[in-house]
Design goal:
Shape: elongated
Structural class: alpha/beta
Helix content: 40-55%
Strand content: 5-15%
Radius of gyration: 32 Å
Number of helices: 9
Length: about 325
Amino acid sequence: MAWSARVPFAGTHLRRVTTRNGSVTISLDDVSASYFDVMGMAILRGRAFTRQEVESNAPVMLVSESLARQRWPNGDAIGRSLPVNDVLTGPDTTKSYSVIGVVRDIRSNFLSRLNGASAYYPRAFDGNFGAFLLRTRGTPASATNAVRVAIAGVSPLLNGRTHIVTLQAGPMAVQRLMAEAPAALALVLALAGLVLASVGVYGLIAQIVTRRTREIGVHMAIGARPMQVVALVARKTLRPVAWGAAAGAVGAVALCFFLRSLISVPDVPDLTFGAGAFNPLVLGGVLATLLIAVVAACIIPAHRAARVDPTVALRSE
């Protein structure tokens, strides 16, 4: 069991600082000595907090490997001391904090991305806020009753003031819903837009080709074969369509790069879960669908007009 000032996946405590290399966002958390074992965080170098350091709120800290690379790119972070009022200073800004360990990057802010630069400070539970974290051997839901019995053994009044929830059914489920609900809505709107665009393009191109029935009749009257007429109409019609598709693809790629800049912000979840804003398969599928609609709208009316008697085609308006 461990204690943390912040419930995993249920909020963030971020500090944004500006350095010579740009803006850096750092995730901060106050934890107990057993926090890293409960969260399954591997300590790459150094050591974890001791119980004495937690009880005394000692001026020591652990940093994530991302923060260690950013702050000390040319050396080891272990043993480094921070000046007073440094951007990485812990809760007591009048003390100089020392780095005693480096831990692996984990996901505890958002399911969709790693925390990145993170700093952890020792702090004992003071009864004001925070959460106790329990790691179970079986399923977390099966341990709920045992936890309530243990809490009741301390004080029968605590059960009414304690909220027990598993990470899977609580904050993690909320984060999944935050991604799945907009994704489902976006999928429905995208499919509806694609269908409407396909129907609109088909109707427009079909109308343009149909209005060229008289021209088709002239070509048929001078001896052109039906397939030659269809190829001629398709060539003239598809040329502006190709230019429009190229312009649309360029605009779509530019929009994707703009959206990529939005989802790269570290203090908001990545709703694409690492898929990124630009997906070549999706873009290719949309272009292929519209191309099929255009080709069908071009060939079907042209082929129908080419089978009409030239004298009838010449009389059409």
